[in-house]
Specification:
With 180 residues, this protein is mainly alpha-helical. The protein is built from eleven helices and no strands.
């Protein structure tokens, strides 16, 4: 059985000029803080859609997701109607899973509720920064759909709420808020 490479090893072995979307994502996005609610929503939707699939598949379809989900504008997605759901389920450029599509719309509405109560999705997340993963998972399950432990963990690591996105010896780790 082949030993699976760590994401950092895989990405750092790609040439600097690689057009593999993992290279850019690893070097410039994964483990970096996001401050915009729509960008946080995008990451949550992408992580949910990755469930059962490879991250490479999601990155290759990312532009299609951005188009299909109105640039991840939370208010627009929250107002998607049945015709939008049907459109998404027919869109071969994204993941056509009804549970994941419905979760995106439901979660957009939940984020609006959190924004109203806390000022922004980011502020709500920041208020819970000290939580351990198990408590984050409980909190996410209370507010969102299609969020299990792995999805919540990856969302939080990828947006700099939990450490672990990069190996300590990875050059990109030094650019994250977890480098000391």
């Amino acid at each position: 059985m082949a030993v699976k490479k760590h994401y950092c090893d895989f990405c750092n072995e790609l040439p600097p000029d690689s057009d593999n979307p993992n290279k850019f994502y690893h070097d410039h996005e994964y483990g970096f803080e996001l401050t915009d609610d729509n960008e946080l929503f995008e990451r949550l939707v992408l992580e949910i859609n990755q469930a059962g699939l490879s991250w490479n598949t999601i990155l290759q379809k990312r532009k299609n997701f951005q188009l299909a989900y109105a640039g991840f504008d939370i208010l627009k997605v929250a107002n998607f109607k049945e015709k939008d759901i049907e459109r998404l389920l027919q869109d071969s450029g994204i993941i056509r899973n009804k549970l994941k599509v419905n979760a995106a719309i439901y979660n957009a509405n939940q984020i609006i509720t959190l924004q109203q109560a806390h000022g922004s999705f980011k502020q709500w997340l920041d208020q819970h920064k000290a939580l351990e993963l198990a408590d984050w998972v409980k909190l996410f399950k209370k507010h969102f759909k299609f969020v299990g432990g792995e999805i919540v963990n990856e969302f939080l690591m990828s947006t700099a709420y939990l450490p672990g996105s990069h190996r300590f010896d990875c050059p990109t780790h030094k650019k994250t808020i977890f480098y000391k």
